[in-house]
């Protein structure tokens, strides 16, 4: 609906959005689906992948424009003058000459009006050839973008709204859960007003998880054991990436061609858990600092003893024996890394449910080798019991 509105009347109906969630919940898949919907309606698209240390946003847009020009797109050729003007500004800002329209260097801060003008011009030309169409700009992994690019993005979209309201330009992005904090740190103080930032649930509810397991198999004439389905949902906690991984492992190990039994599921869970530990949990655990490990252990102890999926900041302070201000920096760093998230104000939870038991199993060995004095699990547990 939004693309139809933008294609018809321009930015007046734009709802720029950033879909956020932890890794493995389908953000990129949703962005790809948005691409397909846009192309079916006549939108050309520029898809950017934000990377740490990568090229800036304007350079990425120019590279996308260059690709359309090489393929002989009439709309983009008609906008060549505007695009070359943008490339010249970008070259001047970076101090490095670019080939064609590609700006291969990190550009200095760019006037958002110039970028907005270029996008609006291209979008109008596209709509001339494809009524109802326009330009769709998407960015995957937005949270790793440079602060200057995030500020430029917000300012460019504001310029489009204020000065090019008729232009059919749409924007969408995907990001980890900490994107609101990342935008704030980049100086985008009105992010909640500038963007719609819906969150994909970290855990699927039981009906959704069951559907994801059963329906793809049913479409191919394969039946799942009901006991096996319930066991798989429990083992994955409804975490989308693990639902997919564990179900795939069980299906591949199934003895019969038309049925996945409870026994197949148990074998699949064992194999998938080894994959998750080797590919996800162990690398993350090795990458965190000792203080990060201590905070993760405090969260794991609290969720285990309270039998909840989250812990409050007050509980974690009690377990650590330190006030919030002494561990808040570690908290934010772990949120930025998507190891944990805040399901509600003053609460923390593990992004990947299976990380908690892994932390409890590995923490004491980590503590024994740490250069800092870290709190023992037994002490954490005692402190929590007294509260």
Give a short summary of the structure.
The chain is of the alpha/beta class and 387 residues long. Helices cover 58% and strands 10% of the residues.
Task: Please describe what this structure looks like.
With 387 residues, the protein is of the alpha/beta class. 58% of the residues lie in helices and 10% in strands. The strands form 3 sheets. A 4-stranded parallel β-sheet has the order 1-4-3-2, sandwiched between helices. Helix 11 packs parallel to helix 13 and helix 14 crosses helix 15 (313-320). The model is unreliable at 92-108 (pLDDT under 50).
Summary tags:
Rossmann fold, alpha/beta, single chain, Arc Repressor Mutant, subunit A, 9 strands, Helicase, Ruva Protein, domain 3, 3 domains, 58% helix, three-stranded antiparallel sheet, four-stranded parallel sheet, 387 residues, globular
Count of helical segments?
18
Give the second-level CATH assignment, the architecture of the largest domain: 3-Layer(aba) Sandwich
Q: Biggest sheet: strands side by side, in what order?
A: 1-4-3-2
CATH third-level topology of the largest domain = Rossmann fold
CATH superfamily of the largest domain: P-loop containing nucleotide triphosphate hydrolases
Straight-line N-to-C gap: 52 Å
- Secondary-structure element pattern, one letter each: HEHEHHHHEHEHHHEHHEHHEHHEEHH
CATH class of the largest domain, named Alpha Beta
Oligomeric grouping of the chains: single chain
Radius of gyration, in Å, reads 24 Å
């Amino acid at each position: 609906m939004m693309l139809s509105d933008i294609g018809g009347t321009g930015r007046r109906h734009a709802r720029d959005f950033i879909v956020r969630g932890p890794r493995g919940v389908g953000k990129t898949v949703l962005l790809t689906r948005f691409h397909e919907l846009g192309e079916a309606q006549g939108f050309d698209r520029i898809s950017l992948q934000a990377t740490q240390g990568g090229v800036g946003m304007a350079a990425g847009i120019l590279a996308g424009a260059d690709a359309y020009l090489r393929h002989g797109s009439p709309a983009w050729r008609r906008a060549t003058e505007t695009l070359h003007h943008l490339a010249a500004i970008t070259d001047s800002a970076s101090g490095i000459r670019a080939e064609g329209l590609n700006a291969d260097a990190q550009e200095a801060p760019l006037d958002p009006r110039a970028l907005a003008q270029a996008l609006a011009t291209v979008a109008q030309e596209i709509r001339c050839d494809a009524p109802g169409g326009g330009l769709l700009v998407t960015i995957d992994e937005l949270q790793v973008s440079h602060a200057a690019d995030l500020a430029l993005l917000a300012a460019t979209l504001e310029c489009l709204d204020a000065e090019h309201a008729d232009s059919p330009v749409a924007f969408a992005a995907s990001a980890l859960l900490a994107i609101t904090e990342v935008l704030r740190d980049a100086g985008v103080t009105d992010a909640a007003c500038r963007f719609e930032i819906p969150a994909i649930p970290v855990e699927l509810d039981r009906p959704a998880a069951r559907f994801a397991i059963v329906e793809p198999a049913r479409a191919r004439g394969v039946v799942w054991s009901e006991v096996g389905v319930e066991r798989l949902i429990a083992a994955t906690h409804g975490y989308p990436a693990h639902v997919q991984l564990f179900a795939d492992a069980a299906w591949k190990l199934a003895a019969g061609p038309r049925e996945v039994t409870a026994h197949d599921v148990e074998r699949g869970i064992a194999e998938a858990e080894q994959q998750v530990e080797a590919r996800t949990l162990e690398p993350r655990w090795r990458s965190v600092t000792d203080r990060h490990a201590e905070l993760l252990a405090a969260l794991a102890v609290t969720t285990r003893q309270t039998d909840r999926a989250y812990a409050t900041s007050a509980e974690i302070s009690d377990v650590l024996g330190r006030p919030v201000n002494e561990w808040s920096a570690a908290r934010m760093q772990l949120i930025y890394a998507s190891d944990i998230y805040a399901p509600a104000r003053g609460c923390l939870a593990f992004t990947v449910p299976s990380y908690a038991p892994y932390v409890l199993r590995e923490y004491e060995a980590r503590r024994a080798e740490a250069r800092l004095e870290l709190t023992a699990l037994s002490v954490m547990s005692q402190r929590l019991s007294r509260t």
